[in-house]
Amino acid sequence: MSPIDLSIVQVAIEDPSKYGSQRSIPISYHDSSHSAESVAVQTLPSIVHPPTNQELETLRRIGGKIPLGAWLVAIIGFAERFSYYGVTTPLQNYIQNARDDPLRHGALGLGQSSATRLSYFLTFLVYATSFGGAIVADGWLGRYKSLTFFASVYALGILILFITSLPVSLNHGAGLGGLIAAIIIFGVGAGGMKSNLAPFIADQCAEPSASSLRVIETSTGERVIVDQALTLQRIYSIYYWCGNVGSLSGVATALLERHVDFWAAFLLPFCSIWVAFALLVLGNRKFVKPPAKGTILPQAMKAFWFGARGGFKMDAAMPAAQLSKHQRVVPWEDTFIHELKRGLLACRVFLAWPILLLCQSQISNNLVSQAATMETRGVPNDLISFLNPVSVIVLLPLAEQLLYPALRKAKITFSPINRMALGFLFESFAQAYASGIQHLVYTAGPCYDAPLKCAPNPGPNHANVWVQTPIYVLEGLGEVFSSPSAYEYAYDAAPPSMKSLLQAVLVGMGALAVLLGLAISPLYRDPLLVVSYAVLSGSMFVTTVVYFCAFRTHGGAGMADTSGVVHSAGEDKEGPVEKESGGEAVQRSSTTL
């Protein structure tokens, strides 16, 4: 063994803070009658190592580097949202209005009622089929192959819509049949991509080491803690930001519909989805592609049944409980039941989502109708709603670059649960303001509470449409805090075998929102709209209060707040066990969210 300077040993013993973990090692030194001794020394820490308690208190936290694969997935998400909103924006006019209508551009002439029902059906189909996409990904194909497959289905649906919207196809009566086929195929493709893109982008940033925290030295010499939770938060903010940029495609397709024709409006999103497909194929070697874990649904359903029969307690489905009480041998281990319990706890957090999505859906229907009853001064009433994605595009980077770092610096906890609750509150304010604007419309002439329906001059009421602007800003603030946090929570709280499935549960809440919208749709008429918006605002506010009280201490498995407090999946009451650089296990205390 090479000799060691005893002065270093002495310094290490006298001042342990200068070195890393303590261990006992044999040493030898010159000019001594002893050939070797076992001396407790402090070994130097590695350049990258898990943080000590002192480092947790003193070092600044940052997110890790975002790999190329994650950026590619974010661009794919942009292209997918570009295609989705590019198709759905002109769809209402395409279905509702006739080709020979001198005032309004259209194609099929099925009327407003049929157009609204078909639009609701498409939205419901996208949300509902997300479960199928998750099952395919988690159980058989894996997320990468599933995305490639569903992108192909997506493209086929738009292709059918494009071909059957050509004048020659409409002249031969192919429009309606093509529309129905396109909606079904397009909906399946969109639902499959929607449930897999969000977890797939997080896969690219997954930390291969056991610890989600590590200390590194920056190029400026500063020692900082790289926090995997902050990396996840940032990548979902980027993903959601890209999706909102993509949603602006509706402006382009609305203009193409008006100035060219519907086939041109549908051609643009068809090209965009092929960009997404090309990036998936060409970026194949840049992606982290976790394999499918195998479908857990048959065993999960059986475990849920055993748990229900045992008093609705999942512990009743444990192998030991089944063997002792029913002399039954089950094909799973305790770990499987713990994962199911973890997934169920995470799903409870999303029970507020149908109310949130119901409120947000007003952007694409009732608020557009409200704008039509106001003075737009030449601006198309269906373009005002694009102030919402513009608000998100502006506000999300401000929150990510200014607000969250300031809160971390001030040691203020702002967990995903708290962010979602704040987003709900802003949504409640948006609906309350919309109710006030509707009251303003009803108190203005010439038609008062019967806009566009009074005689002899049924013009818009004398209210400027731009007073709607705060609605879309408040909606944008609500989305900034709620939506990226929900994606983050759904990925991090889910067991490995349920990543896509939990995202599908989050997306699937939209199907319940559609059903709620259909149930209360009789209230969506003059002069009841003031009450309608007020009811939505009150429902969202009550939901916010209940949600915050129920989940404010529920951080979820693997979750971290923006102040950097991490809760790992396997931690106990005394804190998780981490490895120091030397390999010794140490206990680290954790703070409850």
The number of helical elements comes to 19
What is the topology, as strand order, of the major beta sheet? 3-5-4
**Order of secondary-structure elements:** HEEHEHHHHEEHHHHHHHHHHHHHEE
What is the CA–CA distance across the termini?
A: 49 Å
Q: Give the overall shape, derived from the CA principal axes.
A: globular
Structural class: mainly alpha
Helix content class: 55-70%
- Average predicted confidence as pLDDT: 81
Rg, alpha carbons: 28 Å
- Major beta-sheet overview: 3 strands, mixed
Low-confidence stretches: 1-46, 556-593
- For the secondary structure, the number of strands is 7
Percentage of residues in DSSP E strands:
5-15%
InterPro entries: MFS_trans_sf (IPR036259), POT_fam (IPR000109), PTR2_symporter_CS (IPR018456)
Family: Belongs to the major facilitator superfamily. Proton-dependent oligopeptide transporter (POT/PTR) (TC 2.A.17) family.
GO molecular function: transmembrane transporter activity
Protein name: POT family-domain-containing protein
Describe this structure in words.
Keywords: Membrane, Transmembrane, Transmembrane helix, Transport. It comes from Favolaschia claudopus. With 593 residues, the chain is mainly α. 60% of the residues lie in helices and 5% in strands. The protein contains 19 helices and seven strands. Strand 4 (213-217) and strand 5 (223-227) form a beta hairpin. It is globular and about 75 Å long. 45% of the residues are buried.
